[in-house]
Specification:
alpha/beta; eight-stranded mixed beta sheet; 19 helices; 19% strand; binds hexanoyl-coenzyme A
């Protein structure tokens, strides 16, 4: 029987099981993910005693926008997509091929986990896959798309990859299912509540992208790939753009509110700077006080990290620090220049944050920036206070170019807090405390809440007109085009 016929027969059987569950088949998914007609299956004839028509995963190669990728697609219609020895071998083989070819690997996840009948040999298979995920980390992009159950230890393979896409209602990740949760803690919870898109897209941050449908997920993966290089040995693809590199954005000159505590939407600045206003946010439903997004400027990929004043005034907390740290480390591993846009009043104070380990989380972001060798451009839009100023890619940490808008406030801390500390005695003794405080705050702001001192000290390269930000950013990255070396640097450990 020809290979095409084999696949067709298998797919027809799978449709009967998958479609009633609102899910696509392993082959249908690959056809949506890859360029039309580009899928080439490997190991199609590898079978097992229990599954003579084929095992619970389809593996092979294909292209996305003409560039090669390696893929595996778990087949739930065969023993619930469970992972036994043969399935593990097929997955490991295609991962090895991807590593040798230095091309991305994309895993489509729809599985009941370890094949119970095979006992611990299936656990061994998982262990080998995890080890391979770690070996590949930082060398080739690894992407997972969760379109079915991902139960038990099986969750750890996607968690070791760079990006997890998860589809609403059908994709669920959990270490122990609702039944075990009920027995152990007495909590009653559905599969979707426990491990669905709401849980992992907005609360745990385990998933990077949450999608309404499988079609959307595969389309978004294709779009994400357009920003990424094939491996750590390449730069991301460059695109020809009609968007002028010298385009000025007049609206930005009056964009920052007069009142320095009034929020504004950082998304506008990102869109204004990016080619054609386009960008692709990562983890856009999680830790909203920081934005991590891919964009292109002058046709080239950049990773943008930006505080979002609309959420918690753009403060850095545990979740935001870790979200940004992992993004920065991904960009560094894959030769993606980093643009940082700063408006941060500081780290979030509080017992919960301190006891939750904000020190360790903040240190992760510091570490990520300090070790990054890709070109790094930073623009201080407004507040850059204290430790949070340092951590958001300051010159001291190794930023290559650091600019400030005239609205930039680079200081040890905000005026209110600073005045309380340095004028404590005077304020306590004063009859007109509030009046005196406003006067002192105004004086402090005049003196420190601007970029002038930082510019005098050479801690910023220049104060720039907001309307010229795109041009300045593009010129800076042009200057830095040959900075850094291609090749393996470090893994992308889950943070
Ligand atoms: C063998 C399995 C299986 C498994 C499902 N099947 N999971 N076979 N091993 N792990 C089989 C079912 O017996 C059934 O076979 C078919 O797949 C479809 O399953 P259904 O239950 O009918 O489907 P559904 O109602 O959609 O429920 C899916 C499910 C449920 C939620 C995933 O099957 C389930 O809870 N499975 C067990 C999950 C689990 O606990 N796995 C082990 C986790 S421990 P038939 O013949 O009836 O069609 C683990 C350790 C890994 O993974 C550790 C790594 C370090």
């Amino acid at each position: 029987m020809s290979d095409d016929n084999l696949a067709e027969i298998r797919d027809e059987k799978a449709k009967k099981i998958q479609h009633p569950k609102g899910k696509l088949t392993a082959y249908e998914r690959l056809n949506l993910l890859l360029d039309k007609g580009s899928f080439s299956e490997i190991d199609q004839h590898v079978t097992s005693e229990e599954n003579p028509d084929g095992e619970a995963v389809v593996t092979g190669t294909g292209t996305i926008h003409g560039r090669p990728v390696f893929v595996f697609s778990e087949d739930f219609s065969v023993m619930g997509g469970s992972l036994g020895e043969v399935v593990a071998k097929k997955i490991l083989k295609v991962m090895d091929h991807a590593l040798e070819a230095r091309a991305p690997i994309i895993g489509i996840k729809d599985s009941g986990g370890a094949r119970i009948q095979e006992g611990i040999s299936s656990l061994y298979g998982y262990a080998q896959i995890f080890k391979k995920n770690v070996e590949a980390s930082g060398k080739i992009p690894q992407i997972s798309v969760v379109v079915g159950p991902s139960a038990g230890g099986a969750v750890y393979s996607p968690a070791l990859t760079d990006f997890i896409f998860q589809v609403k209602d059908i994709g669920q990740l959990y270490v122990t299912g609702p039944a075990v949760v009920k027995t152990v803690t007495g909590e009653e919870v559905s599969y979707e509540e426990l491990g669905g898109v709401e849980a992992h897209g907005t609360k745990s941050g385990v998933s990077h992208q949450i999608c309404e449908s499988e079609e959307q997920a595969f389309e978004e993966i294709r779009y994400l790939m357009s920003f990424l290089p094939q491996s750590s040995f390449q730069k991301p693809p460059a695109f020809i753009t009609e968007d002028e590199s010298s385009r000025t954005i007049e609206s930005l000159d009056s964009f920052i509110p007069e009142n320095r505590n009034q929020p504004y939407d950082m998304e506008k600045i990102i869109s204004d700077i990016s080619d054609d206003g386009e960008h692709y946010p990562i983890q856009s439903n999680y830790a909203l006080n920081i934005i991590t997004t891919f964009a292109r400027v002058n046709g080239n990929t950049v990773g943008i990290v930006a505080n979002q004043p609309m959420e918690l005034a753009g403060v850095l907390d545990i979740k935001a620090s870790e979200k940004a740290a992992r993004f920065v480390r991904f960009c560094d591993a894959f030769n993606i220049p980093i643009l940082t846009l700063v408006d941060v009043p500081g780290f979030l104070p509080g017992v919960e944050q301190e006891h939750g380990g904000i020190i360790r989380s903040g240190a992760k972001l510091l570490y990520a920036y300090a070790e990054a060798t890709v070109p790094r451009v930073c623009v201080v839009i407004r507040k850059a206070y204290g430790g949070a100023y340092i951590v958001m890619d300051s010159i001291g940490l190794g930023a290559d170019k650091l600019y400030a808008w005239p609205s930039g406030e680079i200081a040890v801390m905000g005026a209110e807090g600073a005045v309380d500390i340095i004028h404590r005695r005077e304020l306590t003794a004063a009859d007109n405390r509030e009046e005196l405080k406003s006067k002192l705050v105004a004086e402090y702001n005049d003196k420190f809440s601007n970029p002038d001192i930082a510019a005098q000290l050479g801690l910023i390269d220049n104060i720039i007109k907001p309307s010229e930000t795109r041009k300045v950013v593009i010129d800076s990255f042009k200057d830095l085009v040959n900075k850094g070396e291609l090749g393996d640097k470090h893994g992308n450990i889950p943070l």
